[in-house]
Design goal:
The structure holds 3 protein chains of 3 kinds. Chain A contains 10 helices and 14 strands. Chain A is of the alpha/beta class. By secondary structure, chain C is mostly helical. In chain C, helix 1 packs across helix 9, helix 6 crosses helix 7 and helix 7 runs antiparallel to helix 9.
Chain lengths: ~290, ~240, ~250
């Protein structure tokens, strides 16, 4: 469990990134921090592993103030994934993944063997192990980044807009993978993004920020979609003008098919009458086409 | 200060000569480097020839160059022309690289736009590319200026009358003050030349007056090779 | 052309390589001296400049100092510096030691700016994101310096040392004019005896030495380039790569 207690961050040039922020992130769940740039979400994330130090307030992990722990030890026990993967370009993929275990003293051969297993976990071909990061695609590099973060088997995974720099198709893939991983591993994930749809896809709990680290609303995706707290949230999630309201429609000629339309009457897709959508399978609402 | 006040005439004469010997290579470097820089940007082959060639020449130490040059251009070792040509070679070697980088940094959308407007190639070169390449060229010529002034004094070994004489004579006669005077004047000359170049730059490129380009003190001129900052670009990985 | 051929003949004449010759011969002794002075000076300069450059590059403090320092060192007339130090040490040291100590200090002073610039700019060229990720993964500052920054900065670091080596080789040549050994002795002897074979032969030898060492260091520089980046390395600097060139030396080699 990660707890922020009255955390404030004021930068030397006077900007207040976060003011008196208090919040608890539950264990073994994915919490997504969303907001536009400059709202303080990345600052908050980086305070967890002390890459940024709060001006005042405490951050507690499982009841222990992170400020009381050795920075380096703390970071070795937390996984960190960032946007450009930040892989060491002069080391092979395998050695990149094994970075933290080797730092903590695990024998090299053992660390490398574990690393190979992690490549499987993130869905990478083992043949890539001896390549250099530059030779991989963006999506592959990100997977390596995730594997590296998992290498020390941390309880907490910090992810700072990790899928921001890849194209939408790859991003969708990676999101699905992350959900699958989370189901298998059950880590406490803190994920930062500016993309509300990504947040809804990945989160158990979404926290929407205004500037200055002020929480506009927090809750499950369904809660937020059902009841946006105010106009800011409504417009942020695209729910103003009914953008998020979907309706079911049955027309006489449709032979029992149920059309899903948005508030403007535009068809979005077909309701799959078999089951509820599982979080890992493809969108059951198939892409719609105009009906006569 | 006793020696200095007693030999004012000598110092003045040597200084003037030193200035005269430095100015020609500096101007020559600037003028010659522009076509060379343009040439270097034409193709990989020409680039290799110009840049690598310049680099090789630059590597040759000065005393050997003073001695070998007469064989190639037919001067005598002790000729003043010999010294001036050698200094110009070093200047061009430094500057060609600068010019090549400066011109290639202007290329692209700006040049395309100029073509589309209807500039002829020569006109475009003179009135668009060259002015925009100005700041980098200025930085390069400032380095050449400082280096050339420092190098002129080595010419005393082959008989040139310049501030280097103060070093040689001072050592021979055991007058430390003479050597120090030579060093101080040499540094002052470098400073004056640098300020002059900055002023010329400001006049020639009034559009840059507000930016920091011309205003940096002479001590802070970065080397003309691409700064490390240039090498650090956006780190996004391709999809 | 004749002069060139005669000088070349002078160089390859075996009697000029037999030990026990009268100064400035044998050639190999002068060559050995030249290399020795260069090696010692560059080593001392590296011991001073590399840690300083790493500190400035890693912490970012002292940036302005480095830029100012290397800029102003460019303006120093090497002959003046050399003679100044020789005279100063001539007052305090014996006749034998003064030239060597004074010259070596001059060489070191002239070598420091290039090495400093190379170390500092090399470290500066390392992608900040890579360093940030390394820190977030729990590397100590020392580990970041030794395992990430320095390996990635090697080409520029070596480039700085390369420039320094050439600077010193050139200055050693001149220093012979003030009584030191080295290949420059051959040239200055020739000037004294009005023997053009000596003058040109010496000049060719120094040139060959400079070009040869430069070539070796260029290969070394290329060899230290990061494997993970070389397959994309082109003459232009690209995103996420350090520029694999040497920084401009503080002065043309005198």
């Amino acid at each position: 469990m990660i707890e922020f207690q009255s955390v404030t961050k004021r930068f030397p040039d006077g900007t207040v990134a976060v003011d008196d922020f208090s919040f608890t992130l539950p264990s073994r769940k994915t919490t997504v921090l969303v907001g536009s740039s400059g709202c303080g979400k990345t600052t908050l994330l980086r305070m967890i592993n002390r890459m940024v130090e709060p001006t005042s307030g405490q951050i507690l992990i499982d009841g222990v103030d992170v400020a009381t722990q050795d920075k380096v030890k703390l970071r070795r026990g937390i996984g960190y994934v960032l946007q450009a993967a930040g892989l060491l370009p002069h080391r092979t993929v395998l050695n990149n993944v094994a970075t933290v275990p080797i730092l903590t003293g695990v024998p090299k051969s053992e660390a490398r063997a574990q690393a190979l297993g992690l490549l499987d976990t993130v869905g990478l071909d083992r043949a890539l192990a001896d390549r250099y990061p530059r030779q991989l695609s963006g999506g592959q590099q990100q997977r390596v980044g995730v594997a590296r973060a998992l290498a020390s088997d941390p309880n907490i995974l910090l992810m700072d807009e990790p899928f921001g720099a890849v194209d939408p198709i790859v991003r969708a893939d990676l999101q699905l993978e992350l959900n699958r991983l989370q189901r298998d591993l059950g880590k406490t994930i803190v994920f930062v993004t500016h993309d509300i749809d990504e947040a809804f896809t990945l989160a158990d709990q979404v926290v929407i920020f205004k500037k200055g680290g002020v929480i506009a609303q927090s809750g499950t995706p369904a809660e937020i979609l059902a009841q946006p707290a105010d106009d800011f949230v409504a417009s942020f999630i695209g729910a103003d003008k009914g953008g998020r309201d979907l309706y079911l429609q049955q027309r006489p000629d449709d032979r029992g098919l149920t059309l899903v339309v948005d508030a403007r009457g535009r068809p979005v897709g077909i309701l799959d009458s078999d089951s509820h959508s599982d979080s890992d399978s493809d969108d059951d609402v198939a892409a719609g086409s105009a009906l006569p | 200060m006793r020696w200095a006040t007693g030999n004012f005439d000598l110092i003045a004469e040597l200084t003037l000569n030193h200035v005269r010997l430095a100015i020609i290579p500096i101007i020559a470097s600037f003028v010659l480097s522009i076509p060379l820089g343009w040439l270097a940007n034409r193709s990989k082959v020409t680039r290799a020839i110009v840049i690598t060639g310049g680099s090789l020449l630059y590597t040759i130490p000065s005393l050997p160059l003073f001695v070998i040059l007469p064989l190639i251009i037919g001067t005598r070792v002790l000729d003043e022309t010999n010294l001036i040509v050698a200094l110009s070679i070093y200047g061009v070697a430094i500057m060609a690289r600068s010019a090549s980088d400066a011109l290639s940094s202007v290329a692209g959308p700006t040049v395309d736009a100029a073509d589309a407007i209807g500039f002829s190639p020569m006109s475009r070169f003179l009135r668009v590319e060259l002015p925009l390449a100005g700041p980098v060229l200025l930085a390069g010529i400032r380095v050449v200026s400082v280096s050339t002034i420092a190098l002129v004094s080595v010419g005393v070994i082959i008989g040139s009358a310049n501030l280097g004489y103060l070093f040689q004579n001072g050592k021979q006669r055991g007058i430390l003050e003479e050597v120090v005077v030579g060093i101080v004047i040499s540094l002052l000359l470098a400073l004056i030349f640098d300020l002059a170049l900055v002023a010329i730059g400001r006049l020639a490129m009034p559009w840059n007056a507000g930016s920091g380009a011309g205003r940096r003190l002479w001590l802070r001129v970065p080397a003309p090779t691409p700064e490390p900052a240039d090498a650090r670009a956006d780190t996004r990985s391709p999809a | 052309m004749n002069l060139l051929l005669e000088a070349l003949r002078w160089i390859v004449d075996p009697t000029h390589w037999t030990p026990g010759g009268q100064s400035p011969l044998p050639i190999q002794d002068r060559l050995a001296e030249h290399l020795a002075y260069t090696a010692v000076a560059v080593l001392i300069a590296a011991v001073i400049a590399l840690p300083l450059g790493f500190f400035i590059g890693h912490t970012g403090r002292g940036r302005q100092f480095v830029i100012g320092f290397t800029g102003s060192m460019r303006a120093l007339p090497t002959l003046g510096l050399l003679f100044f130090l020789l005279m100063v040490f001539g007052y305090v040291l014996s006749y034998d030691w003064a030239p060597i100590i004074g010259s070596t200090i001059a060489f070191v002073i002239l070598a420091i700016p290039s090495i400093l610039a190379g170390a500092y700019s090399g470290l500066e060229s390392v992608d900040r994101v890579t360093i940030d990720a390394a820190r977030a993964n729990g590397m100590t500052e020392w580990q970041i310096l030794s395992q990430v920054e320095i390996p990635l900065a090697l080409p520029l670091i070596v480039g700085g040392i390369r420039a320094a080596v050439l600077q010193v080789i050139a200055t050693v040549t001149i220093a012979s004019y003030a009584g030191l050994g080295g290949l420059g002795r051959i040239i200055t002897s020739g000037i004294g005896l009005n023997d053009y074979d000596l003058i040109l032969g010496g000049a060719l030898l120094v040139t060959a030495l400079a070009l040869g060492i430069d070539g070796i260091m260029a290969l070394l520089q290329r060899a230290t380039a990061t494997k993970g980046l070389t397959d994309l390395r082109v003459s232009e600097p690209q995103a996420n790569q350090p520029t694999p060139n040497q920084p401009t030396p503080s002065q043309p080699n005198i």
